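Build the 3D complex.
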Amino acid sequence: MPWWPAGYARDAEGRAFEIAVGAVLTQNTNWKNVEKALANLHAAEALGATRILNLDDETLAELIRPSGFYRIKTRRLRAMTTAWHGAGGLHGLQEHPTPGLRDWLLGIHGVGHETADDILLYALERPVWVIDTYTRRLFHRLGFPETAARKYDQLADDLLTDTHEPSAARLAGWHGLIVEHAKAHCRAKPACGGCPLRERCAHGKGMDPGG
DNA sequence: TACCAGGAGAAAA
DNA sequence: TTTTCTCATGGT
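Done.
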């Protein structure tokens, strides 16, 4: 699966679980901080479901501390890991249809719509739109002002229909492009004339929200 | 020093 | 049902 920045695992099961861990840790957090937490877990040889479940809360919290919100993320990561392991890991989860998987994910403490769809798309390779802040903002500024207020499920369904239900690989590619474009825009300081995907970057402060 | 970053759950209104 | 508050570190 393209784009999702996961790099420690060497097999499909490990990679899928690493993506799920990243999806929890990246909640309201810059990805660079998540990378540090993932590196800590890898260095401690704890980047696996059974290994995380064998850690006590204090140790796990210390390992993921760079990702911020480390106390609540310790609980959320443990809940997700317990559910993942209980379901039989990647192999067990792949036997279920997408709607059922999504409901199952949303029932896990600490897994909301975006985190569930990150896991569905990148770890389980299911064709779903990930409606993160960048995606919502992009469509809003492309001339769909109702995007900001529309409920997550409705927006995700509408986008899937409007884009003619593309493959998971294509959806992952598009989502990756949106995120990378948002980041690159802000890095390209001299050329940045206002970033359409960022609320207020250092160069686009005060820009018209309508784009 | 202040603000922001790929949210989610709980509490309050 | 919707809105607000809380959680927290690291970079700019």
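The two ends of chain A are 32 Å apart (CA to CA).
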